[in-house]
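#struct-pred

JT: dropping the chains for the assembly here, can someone run the whole complex?
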Amino acid sequence: MQDGPRFRLPEKEGFIEQLSIDCVIFGYRDRSLHVLVPKLNFRGGLSTLPGGFVRQDESIDEAALNILKGRTGIEKIYLEQFQVFGDLERSTGPFMRDIVRENAERHGENAGEVAWLTRRFVSIGYYALVNIAKVVPVKSEIDDSIDWHPLEALPAMVMDHNKIVAEALKALRNDLDRKLIGFNLLPERFTMQELRELYETVYDRAFTRSNFQRRILDLGVLERLEKKFTGAANKAPYLYRFILPDQG
Amino acid sequence: MQDGPRFRLPEKEGFIEQLSIDCVIFGYRDRSLHVLVPKLNFRGGLSTLPGGFVRQDESIDEAALNILKGRTGIEKIYLEQFQVFGDLERSTGPFMRDIVRENAERHGENAGEVAWLTRRFVSIGYYALVNIAKVVPVKSEIDDSIDWHPLEALPAMVMDHNKIVAEALKALRNDLDRKLIGFNLLPERFTMQELRELYETVYDRAFTRSNFQRRILDLGVLERLEKKFTGAANKAPYLYRFILPDQG
DNA sequence: GGTTATTGTATAAAAAAAATACAATAGCCA
DNA sequence: TGGCTATTGTATTTTTTTTATACAATAACC
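RK: done, full complex below.
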């Protein structure tokens, strides 16, 4: 039998019981989408979405940001709430029961205090889209590792986490230009080609270059800046940036 | 000082704590939208959305249906989950505290058992659209009355319930033809004019008759039945019904 | 059987989207 | 320096979709 978890489970004081948050962090680089998946330090590793619990003194949006920061090191990004997962069977499997039992063996003193984790949980899903090159995930003390996995080759995750990712992707595609999710993602100044490649990756289809440019510019949310030096033997592309809406 | 509540508050055993569900039931009749609002039996009446709590042995979708049935008598309809409301301040006002205090004065014996209700709650919003003529709301024992209120003239409700209605309306408009929310609403067999009047009411705008008919028929979800006898001195309209998707 | 109001559908006009064409240009190289 | 090439930005053409308008069908009345 392998080691039990080397981390301490949280005690219930200060948290809302039976309510959790799971974050689907889509990472973009080189025309492909990845999902950030920590591996719990437990029995050689269990893949889970970065999730956690809601403190009594924070809103659910704040909780999502705090959970994300604590579990991945990522902060100051826009997270979008997309769906609640509340089936009965979703969290009644052996997953948390085993963790709690082995945690109790190792850290006997707080055994009774962590039994709350074996109960049924309702989980609120949040997603974000970030630039892999701009973000450095840092594993938390409860995880062994944290890695980007290609969307098409995700590991089997605990409970219904693979389903949560599938629903998050639907929501992302639904929201991409309506909610300007790209804000998190691109460098402050980017070319039209970089933006188009992002769209093509998220929707997994091609967009005609000329029409894409017109459609995006017609949204009226981009400001044209100076030209970008590429060194290539051809016309230099302009840089653009998002015009942030007035804070009125 | 008026009477305290004449009902017994639920004790926490069997429920998920700090998690609630609120239902926005849109009612349609005579080209206008209403919202079903029960009035709590408390201090002469407090308007609230029909809401309640999630039992340990039911999914959140089942909970929404059970809450709706218990609070309004309405059953067997399609409820759509649309958003979670989890701001810190949303449920920290005097609303529940007052109810619990006066409940304790009246029914002293279970006073300690209902303190859970004064805590901060996170609430999952569900909405539905029903035909006022086909549904008979029945007030529950915790309410004094239950009434349809025109969408444009809703009473001030407790906590953030007016905001929840506003968000539900956005979701309804977003989903109406994508999710065929009309299923709950229309009689089994209906005319194209009845369907169009519904759309015009929900979106609060006119649709050109001929174009509406083509657009809806092109969706491929309606089956044409026999003509309807109207008695009017003009061409009789066909009846249509929704083709239910295969249950495979 | 003519009249009237309304329905179902066809056609025309307008708008939007997609495909294509073409001019501008940054650096290379003769 | 001036042609060459690859890529960008935009204009134009083509197609599709949406909207507006026209018109034939018809149920009950007189």
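JT: nice. Residues 2 and 124 of chain A are 32 Å apart (CA to CA). Chain A has a mean pLDDT of 90.
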